[in-house]
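re the bet — no i am not wrong, look at it urself. input seq straight from the record:
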Amino acid sequence: MKIKATVLSLLTVSVLAASSSSIANEPVQPISPVKDINLAEVELGKKLFFDPRLSKSGFISCNSCHNLSMGGTDNLKTSIGHKWQQGPINSPTVLNSSLNIAQFWDGRAADLKEQAGGPIANPGEMASTHTLALDVLQSIPAYTTEFKQVFGSREINIDQVTQAIAEFEKTLVTPNSRFDQWLLGNKDAINKTELAGYNLFKKVGCTACHNGQALGGGSFQKMGLVKPYKTANKAEGLSGVTGKDADRFKFKVPTLRNVEMTYPYFHDGEAATLTEAVDVMGQLQLGKKLTGTENAQIVAFLKTLTGEQPSFTLPILPPSVDQTPKPKPFD
């Protein structure tokens, strides 16, 4: 029995080693399950992510633009802000955002925690202020109790709020896509057309930017590398952060994870379909005009990147009290 067990163990190690070697040779890696999280902060952050009272109107929450039932986006060209204002840019997915080199299309937030505070005080988004948002939270006894349990103080500050939201967002990874299963050794997880699409995806050069676990999010690239990209959108990308003219129209490369769910595409949302997005990217970034068959193969591959979506019980938000500042949806 010991000999059989030893042989089986050696076979298991051999299979795992072969699988690891195969993955190492690919420009894409499987998404790892989330690790090293603070569960108490996650539960508090989940409430805050869904709480519209962080906005001036009492109507807009983080989930409004990063809808977790819709791939972590709102599926609009540009998002809708306070008093029905049109946002300046497409809302990127919050799913797997912890894998990004920075946050926002222009990278102006270094991490999820810094990002979480921006929309609350942005007059075109949630249109509140950090002071008002804190006053709302501080007025609600159930929140002060939970903040005390999580952070050790009933005095709530914006650092705690953004920390909790960021910790929740760290859990929003989507492992176990069909393509990840293929990477891990299940060669029946994708079909011949999808595999042909992946091989073509590598051959034409897409993996120069779309690589790693997230297939993107790790660099900034100019939109319109071979040919100029024509758009009415005024966003100038990384140059708005660095002040360097060389960074004009450089945007963070978007993740391709769950990309079939995160339409429309590009920073201006002008590509309505994956077919259109692949065609434009081929011409503008790679200088290649893909045939209809080639385009369809790459699109088929991209659809294998949809992973397991975050699943949890919706949080029940604590009720406001008489002293809670009232929402002002029309001011």
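see?? The first helix runs from residue 2 to 24. told u. also Strands lie at 220-222, 250-252. so pay up
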